[in-house]
Design brief:
about 170 residues, alpha+beta, Glutaredoxin, 4-stranded mixed beta sheet, two-stranded antiparallel sheet, 5 helices, about 35% helix, globular
């Protein structure tokens, strides 16, 4: 119980002290961490991904989006989640392999995270808090982050990564 309370207070403190997305990090399957602070002064798109979803094809268009803008200071981070009908049942390394092999993904991918409910990852609590606390509706919701680390736009799963809504929003921030 004591350990739980310490963990809980640490999470609450980290959420309370977070001033931007760049205050967070995500573990990766290769035992490294995606330190979002590394992407300061870049436009960032954070997307909860899945390998067996009707929207999984967006991995390929996310990669095209990344290739289109990365030289201008744009980054995508994929965050796998298995919370929507178990659509990412693979282990973390298999998820990365599928993304790379089948969709050519080169942007960083974290390990599976909870993106909804009471056990939501602190980054996703922050992202949702910055956009009205609305729960994540499905896989492939996208959060667009400014160079200053502020959440500026949230796109539903059905919004294609290369749609004019997304590309115009990115271009306005670059």
């Amino acid at each position: 119980m004591k350990t739980f309370l310490i963990l809980l207070s640490t999470m609450i403190f980290s959420l309370a002290s977070a001033k931007s997305v760049y205050d967070f990090e995500l573990p990766q399957s290769n035992d490294k961490k995606i330190q979002l602070s590394k992407y300061k002064n870049n436009v960032l798109l954070i997307v909860n991904i899945a390998t067996r979803c009707g929207y999984t094809g967006q991995l390929g268009t996310l990669e095209k989006l990344y290739q289109k803008y990365k030289a201008k200071g744009f980054m995508i981070v994929g965050v796998p989640s298995n919370e929507f009908m178990g659509q990412s049942p693979e282990n973390n390394k298999e998820i990365v392999n599928i993304c790379q092999r089948e969709y050519g993904v080169t942007f960083p991918i974290g390990v599976k995270q909870k993106v909804k409910g009471s056990e939501t990852n602190p980054l996703y609590k922050y992202l949702k808090g910055q956009t009205g606390n609305k729960e994540i509706g499905w896989n492939f919701e996208k959060f667009l982050i400014s160079k200053e680390g502020k959440v500026v736009k949230r796109f539903k799963s059905s919004v294609e990564p290369l749609s004019s809504d997304v590309t115009k929003a990115i271009e306005s921030l670059l």
